[in-house]
Design brief:
By secondary structure, the chain is of the alpha+beta class. Helix content is 24%, strand content 28%. Helix 7 runs antiparallel to helix 8.
């Protein structure tokens, strides 16, 4: 679908996505594999060029497994290195930023976060989108948005008009769409000091550690970015001091706060500044328009939560849009997006703020494997060791089928696990629900477990009473 020609009108798309960041691209990928057409518009003329959100948490790796990009992500990324503390040009010793979390069959990607510069994450998602037949219209900003009972109408900077059933704001913390909807954000300043983030090349500095240079004025850190020749520079400035983002200013900063000389920095590829803030949109939905990612929540980067939460916003919304647009589900299913994601985003903001202020370590909570929807509108029942709303653990499928549970979950379908039971099942559409009978599965215990397309248990029970009724809601 071509959106760049002037005065062209597009009337046959299902979902308009404003923004080709991680959330917008992940959503477009999820929709494409469900046969849902999307038009992705991005005001910039290319994908974001910087490393900004570089930490990928284990739960996000599970999402990437399902979206079909995990091999490319693992190949390009690497585990977060141990920090090395410096003083007066001398190494003072190592510091472990992350409390260890061991991987297991139930959580195979657990461990320290993997580092992947944001630009590379977006490249991988964009490649997957084009593989599925989708695309992004670059240099095309959304300038106005209206909606009615049957859809939304958007006018773009090219002069094109887009008509869609639904629209999604994935256009960042300064969201044009959120402003057009007059949805306020409520929050607080996490740290009044300015921060600088930049991507630099320093061939003379070893890449074995995440280098930390504490100074009275603040700090400076240089983190090697896997799969590149670059380091991400992060520095805090005294209150009231604004960073110099020019290449010369970045080089001078490194020379002033480390043992390195300005000439050791052979290239400054990208630089940006910000003040850490935590803010949450008052609503994640207005009619036929939804907010995801930074359009819905802005945060301190401490703890590596923001990009990961954004991806999971998209993952939560994608299957629901797919069910409404292609699966015959009632539009009320979409109400559950805000009901499930807004409380999780609020918790993420609190966690990021506590980590930023040194009140909480990076550990199990920051890995996001414990996030769930117990008590939520789509969570019904309990069985074995789990309750509806829990993340569906991994594990072996058993000798009868071979492979892993994640192999069974992969795809746009629901998955029904019948563990240690021969309970009779109602007639189920095999295209919608894949059924697997297991003699045993330790993380689950005995019972029936319906796993939603986004990897959470939606319904659970000792027998199938209520299962068919639950599926009519989804």
């Amino acid at each position: 679908m071509e959106l760049n020609s002037v005065k062209e009108t597009v009337t046959d798309t299902d979902v308009l996505i404003a923004g080709a960041g991680p959330a917008g691209l992940a959503l477009a990928v999820d929709l494409a594999r469900r046969g849902v057409r999307s038009a992705v518009v991005e005001k910039a003329d290319r994908l974001f060029p910087g490393s900004r959100g570089k930490g990928l948490q284990p739960r996000t790796l599970e999402v990437f497994d399902d979206l079909g990009v995990i091999d490319a992500v693992l190949e390009s990324s690497g585990p977060a290195p141990v920090q090395m503390i410096w003083k007066d040009g001398e190494r003072q010793g190592e510091h472990h930023m992350f409390d260890p979390v061991a991987p297991s069959p139930a959580a195979p990607y657990a461990g320290t976060p993997r580092l992947l510069p944001q630009w590379r994450t977006q490249e991988i998602l964009y490649a997957r989108l084009t593989e599925l037949g989708g695309d992004v219209s670059f240099g095309n900003a959304l300038t106005s948005l209206t909606q009615d009972a049957s859809g939304v109408t958007a006018v773009l900077s090219t002069g094109a008009t887009v008509r869609a059933a639904y629209a999604v704001a994935a256009d960042g913390g300064r969201s044009t769409v959120r402003a057009a909807l007059s949805i306020p954000m409520t929050g607080e300043t996490v740290d009044p000091a300015s921060m600088l983030v930049a991507d630099v090349r320093i061939p003379s500095l070893d890449r074995l550690n995440w280098h930390v240079f504490p100074v009275e004025a603040g700090f400076l850190m240089l983190c090697p970015l896997p799969g590149t020749e670059e380091f991400q520079l992060a520095a805090r400035f005294p209150d009231g001091e604004r960073p110099d983002l020019s290449p010369g200013g970045v080089r001078a900063l490194i020379a002033a706060r480390t043992h390195l000389a300005a000439d050791d920095v052979t290239e400054v590829l990208w630089a940006s500044d910000f003040r850490p803030r935590a803010a949450l949109a008052d609503r994640f939905r207005a009619g036929r328009v939804f907010l995801v990612g930074d359009a819905a929540h802005v945060h301190s980067p401490a703890g590596g939560q923001g990009l990961n939460t954004s991806i999971q916003d998209a993952y939560n919304l994608g299957w629901k849009l797919g069910r409404v647009l292609r699966g015959g589900a009632h539009g009320s299913l979409l109400d559950s997006y805000e009901e499930e994601r807004l409380p999780n985003a609020a918790e993420m903001l609190g966690l990021s703020t506590r980590v930023h202020r040194g009140e909480q370590r990076r550990g199990a909570a920051t890995q996001q494997l414990g996030i769930g929807y117990r008590g939520g509108p789509l969570s019904q029942g309990a069985a074995g060791a789990l309750q509806a709303g829990d993340r569906a653990p991994g594990g072996p499928l058993g000798p009868r089928e071979g492979g892993s549970l994640f192999d069974a979950f992969r795809g746009p379908h629901f998955t029904l696990l019948a563990v240690g039971t021969d309970a009779a099942l109602p007639a189920l559409d095999p295209g919608t629900v894949h059924v697997h009978r297991l003699d045993t599965c330790e993380p689950y215990g005995k019972g029936l477990f319906l796993v939603r397309p986004d990897g959470y248990i939606g319904w659970a029970g000792d027998d199938a009473t209520g299962l068919a009724g639950y599926l009519t809601r989804c």
